[in-house]
Design brief:
Strands 1-31-2-3-6-7-8-9-17-18-22 form an eleven-stranded mixed beta sheet. Helix 2 (67-94) packs across helix 8 (174-188), helix 5 (117-124) packs across helix 8 (174-188) and helix 17 crosses helix 20 (670-689). The N and C termini lie far apart (70 Å). 53% of the residues are buried. By secondary structure, the protein is of the alpha+beta class. The longest helix has 30 residues, at 2-31. The radius of gyration is 27 Å and the shape is globular.
Length: 819
């Protein structure tokens, strides 16, 4: 028996030793891909010595003697820190993810091939101006210099993920950078889904109730739209499972997760120091690493510093010594869905205003890891590419004998957005920045500008010109063979919304409705915010003048205007009406919750219980109001809509009818539904987090989920690659923390400001910025998450163009010389 135990002990010890050795070998191999920042190297592709100084936050300061050399350096540092991310973005745009991930990403690849973004990117290279072409070539050369270094020096394939998946790594091309900008258009666009959902909902409720559940942003009303079923009498409700956005690498955002942002500026007259101020925090889905990367590059026009996207040679939000710029999602309606009628005698043809015409077709091959490739037939009509019925449930609004096609300004092979962004980086004034914007096509953005004297905001990007007789005004899919429904051209850039030097000295946008124009110059019927803007207005108005710190305070504000306005309305007949009840009863829990909420100021603080009670109540209330009318379609409305709830409880145009449960014999009032919804919320909280309401903590549920898009679900490894942070804020606060809305924890913080920047032109080097994770995409690097806690606490790092300051705090200097 002793011998048995001895051998078992030896075997166990050997296994432990083997495991330790395996981990050490794996660590050694993975750590080989950690970049060395302090070195000298000869490279091909630069004309003069190039210096890259890494400050103590690992922000690279690229000092080239020509613009081309500086862009080479930017490409090199992007590839040093984010090569895997760049490769994934490129493969997504190309529709080539399945070559690595197999069947998991086939649907994403098929959609991207149908949109044909990468072909449009390739043809768009030729329409850029000479300086932009030179910059794209130089940037690509910098990326390829890093790839060559990895191959020649066995630098661990450049990223840990390369060991696991071992993808073929082709040289970087100028078209790859343009493709990534186009990919951002996919991420920021939500009008296709809104059109389809509007049509689906119109088949479930009447016209008045449709105005409730999918309300316009407050403002002037529009003319009534036709009933969708009247356009397509053969339409029937066909439930089709949507595959859009199922994979973490999918760029197709679910409803409520298309781009958002805040940007605001103050003129010298409203600044305490007499200089202009600008703040910007773009909102996207969180990931690890973040999509943003901080960098400074030296151009012949001066230094430029701010937020870049790896894979592109652009500072998307940042400043020079003379000009600052920020961006928000414009929500311009740049997409229209067309229902195309097939020729019943020849399904290879579709109906146009001039009769039946053949589809333009092309075959493309999708290679799948471990399986035979798929040949996909792509089809285009005069309106755009034909999309599958599984994309945002298009099949449910497409009658038999028809297909759906998409018109979209981003589907352009003559896209000069890269040229526009390059010109913006070189601009020395607001006027020059506005001129640069005229070349921008997609994505459509609001551009906030500030120079030493002036502030301005301009919507940039191509705005489609629709006919005033368009039968659905772009709010629902329309008949593709009706000439009046088709786009005529683009609206001139001069007609895009523009605000320069406002009298009040303050400009701002939180994705809110900016202009109130009649169709077809309306810009959009769907806006991203009706709530944050109210809190922003308040914060701007309570001060005569502003400072950098007051702008930071506004950027980090977590007071919910929505909670302050809805709770008194919904709880008006519930406050202080409960009687004493035994501990543990529903009545007792309800009274405790109401007592807590009645004295709450709307601060969505991570340490408080009230934000959870309020958010859970609104979520349950939304579901109670719409579930019996919409059935399974209610699952599309996973975030409570404050405008809808207010309409119901104020009984706007009879909207209180939503409170009555149609299947019951009783006539329920809105007070009844509010009470039942609160009980629902308290039961859910009790089942999952206990009944001690006073000890609840919002931040325990509202955790920012910076997940690695590929390794984030791998057991054990996920604890190393995912970043979790308890956070304040909520769906409608300025410091936006958009909740997930579904799953075991619907209150995870899944969408928010991955970048924050505040620029002060009274003292430009006192400007600050930060990103939500770290500069490195390598999870073994100390720079993988070193900014995450700064970001969570609302702290920033200096945003200086002073080269001496960068060198004084340098943690590494890379010197590249021409080979």
């Amino acid at each position: 028996m002793g011998q048995v135990f001895k051998w078992l002990f030896r075997i166990a010890g050997g296994m432990v030793l083997l495991t330790v050795l395996s981990v050490l070998v794996l660590y050694f191999l993975l750590s080989r891909s950690l970049p060395i920042y302090d070195k000298d190297m000869s490279v091909t592709g630069i004309s003069a010595p190039l210096e890259i100084v890494r400050d103590n936050a690992n922000v690279p300061h690229v000092f080239g003697q020509t613009d081309a050399d500086s862009f080479f350096g930017l490409g090199y540092v992007h590839a040093q820190d984010r090569l895997w991310q760049m490769v994934m973005l490129r493969r997504t745009a190309q529709g080539r993810l399945s070559e690595i991930f197999g069947t998991q990403t086939v649907d994403v690849d098929m959609l991207m091939r149908r949109l044909d973004l990468y072909r449009h990117a390739r043809t768009s290279v030729d329409v850029q101006d000479a300086r932009t072409k030179e910059a794209l070539r130089a940037y690509a050369a910098g990326v390829n210099a890093r790839i060559k270094e990895i191959n020649e020096e066995a630098r661990g394939k450049g990223a840990p993920e390369m060991f696991i998946f071992n993808p073929a790594l082709s040289p970087w091309q100028p078209a790859d950078s343009i493709a990534i900008v186009k990919l951002m258009s996919v991420t920021l666009s939500g009008h296709l889904e809104e059109e389809v959902l509007h049509a689906r909902t119109s088949t479930m409720v009447d016209e008045d109730r449709l105005r409730d559940i999918m309300p316009l942003s407050p403002g002037a009303a529009i003319a009534d739209l036709p009933d969708y079923s009247s356009l397509f009498p053969g339409i029937g409700v066909r439930r089709v499972a949507s595959t859009t956005g199922d994979h973490p690498l999918s760029p197709f955002a679910k409803r409520g997760f298309a781009g958002a942002s805040n940007a605001f500026a103050a003129a010298p007259s409203r600044s305490a120091t007499g200089g202009t101020l600008l703040a910007n925090d773009p909102h996207l889905e969180f990931s690890a690493p973040a999509i943003w990367y901080l960098a400074r590059i030296e151009l012949t026009t001066g230094g430029v510093i701010g937020a870049t996207i790896p894979g592109t040679p652009l500072v998307m939000s940042g400043r020079s010594d003379a000009l600052g710029w920020g961006i928000t999602a414009s929500y311009m309606d740049d997409q229209d869905v067309y229902i195309e009628q097939l020729n019943p005698e020849n399904p290879d043809q579709y109906l146009t205003p001039d009769g039946f015409k053949p589809f333009r077709t092309e075959n493309t091959i999708i290679r799948i890891e471990g399986l035979d490739p798929i040949t996909l037939t792509l089809r285009w009509t005069e309106n755009g590419p034909v999309l599958p019925g599984t994309h945002y449930n298009l099949a449910e609004v497409t009658p038999p004998g028809h297909v759906a096609a998409l018109s979209w300004t981003a589907l352009s092979g003559s896209d000069t957005s890269m040229t526009a962004a390059m010109a913006l980086m070189r601009a020395g004034s607001v006027e020059e920045g506005l001129r640069a914007g005229r070349f921008f096509v997609a994505p459509t953005l609001n551009l906030m500008l500030a120079d030493q004297d002036t502030i301005a905001m301009k919507t940039i990007g191509a705005m489609p010109a629709r006919d005033a007789r368009h039968e659905t005004q772009g709010r629902m899919p329309s008949r593709g063979w009706i000439r009046e429904n088709r786009w005529a051209a683009r609206i001139p850039y001069s007609q895009n919304p523009e605000f320069v030097g406002p009298v009040g000295g303050i400009l701002g946008n939180t994705n809110n409705k900016m202009v109130d124009r009649e169709f077809p110059n309306h810009v959009s019927y769907v806006w991203g915010d009706t709530q944050r803007i109210k809190r922003w207005e308040r914060l701007m108005q309570i001060r005569e003048v502003h400072t950098r710190d007051s702008f930071i305070e506004a950027q980090l504000d977590t007071v919910s205007f929505t909670a302050r306005s809805l709770l008194p309305l919904i709880g008006a007949d519930l406050w202080f009406t409960g009687e004493a009840a035994p501990e543990g009863t529903t009545e007792r829990q309800r009274k405790i919750a109401l007592d807590l909420l009645s004295s709450w100021n709307g601060e969505m603080n991570e340490h408080l219980p009230e934000p959870l009670l309020y958010t859970a109540w609104m979520r349950a209330l939304m579901d109670r109001l719409i579930r019996d009318e919409l059935g399974p379609l209610a699952d599309e409305f996973i975030h409570p809509d404050p405008v809808f709830i207010e309409r119901v409880f104020r009984d706007v145009d009879g909207a209180s009818v939503w409170c009555d449960i149609r299947q019951s014999t009783e006539q329920e009032s809105c007070v009844d539904i509010a009470r039942l919804a609160l009980d629902d919320a308290l039961v859910w909280i009790g089942d999952n987090y206990g009944t001690a309401l006073e000890s609840l903590r919002w931040g325990d549920l509202h955790q920012a989920t910076h997940n690695h898009q590929v390794l984030g679900e791998v057991p054990i490894l996920r604890y190393f690659v995912n970043i979790r942070q308890s956070t304040s804020g909520g769906d409608n606060t300025l410091m936006r923390g958009r909740t997930l809305g579904e799953g075991p924890n619907p209150y995870e913080n899944a969408h928010g400001a991955g970048y924050r920047g505040v620029y002060d032109f009274a003292d430009p080097d006192s400007s600050v910025f930060v990103i939500s994770t770290g500069q490195s995409g390598h999870f073994l690097s100390r720079h993988y998450d070193d900014m995450a806690q700064l970001w969570r606490r609302g702290e920033y790092i200096p945003m200086s163009l002073d080269p001496d300051l960068a060198r004084a705090a340098a943690t590494g200097v890379t010197r590249l010389t021409p080979r």
